[in-house]
Amino acid sequence: MFIFIEGIKLPVNPEEIKLEDKQGIETVAIIDTGNVPLVGNPELQSIEFESFIPSGRYDGNYQRNSRVSPESFVSSIRKFKTEGTPIQLMIGGAFGSAINGKFLVEQFDVSTKTGYENDLIYKIKFLQYRSHKPRKVTIKDKQALEATKKKPQAKATEERSPTTEKPAQKSHTVVSGDTLWGIAQTFYGDGSRYTEIYEANKDKIKDPHWIYPGQEFVIP
C-alpha cells in the first residue's frame, strides 16, 4: 500500500485507515404506518489515520527512499488546512483502489511519546471536497431590457491568421526529492496525470515510483 497527499509520499504507512461513507437518510413518521426512511444524497466521505514521520532513515517496513522531513510535512499540511486548499489524496492497494480524489484537511494533530522523541507522530482527518460555483442573478427593469434588445451588436472585422509555430517541447531534470506526481503537479497542475509522463519516458523509467536525480524526462 502507498499513500500520496498532494504528491507527498508517506514514508510510514498507518496500521489502520478509517473510511466513513454515509448515505443521507431522513426518517419520516407516517400515520398508520410508522417511521419510513427517505433516501437522500450521499454524505461527504471522511478518511482518517495515524502514523509518524521518522526524523532519519529506517530499515524494515519503512520507505528508505522517502525524503520527507517532519518539519516540511507539518508546514505543508498546516498550510493546506488553514488555507482550505483541496488536495489530491491517493491511497493504493486493495483497500484504497477507489480512493483518488480531492479532499480537505479537516483535522491535523501532532504529538510525541517515549521512544519517538525525534519523530513526528500525527493524526490526520480528511473530508471529501465537492466544488460549487454560486450563480449571481441580476434582474433588469423593463426599459433596460428593451434597450439591450435594440442595441446592434458590432461585427468582428479582424481575422486572425492561423498559428504555424509548434510549441517547444518541455523537459525536466530530476532533482533530489522529486516524484512523478510532484512533476505532474508542477507542469499540469494535476498530480494524477503522472502516468502521461511515465508513458512518454518508459525507456528511462522502470518503476513509476522510483526515479533518480539527474534523469531527464520529456514532458508531453
UniProtKB/TrEMBL annotation:
Q: Where is the composition biased (Polar residues)?
A: 164-173
Domain (LysM): give its ranges: 170-219
UniProt-listed SUPFAM superfamilies = LysM domain
- The signal peptide, as residue positions, is none
The organism's superkingdom is given as Bacteria
Q: Where is this region: Disordered?
A: 145-173
Entry protein name: LysM domain-containing protein
Taxonomic lineage is: Bacteria, Bacillati, Bacillota, Bacilli, Lactobacillales
